[in-house]
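Exercise: predict the fold of this chain.
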Amino acid sequence: MHEAPATLTPDRFELDALRARLRAYIAQLDAEVTEPVQDEPLIGGLFD
């Protein structure tokens, strides 16, 4: 069941770096979506 770790080839190194950048970008987008906007109300005045 346990596989030996893959050798680090230039292609594998590049793929790992791209995955890290993608994870960081997704985390940044997630933070932007979840933080409240200061100037806008959280809920629009549907019944106001």
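Check your answer against the key: Residues 8-33 form one domain.
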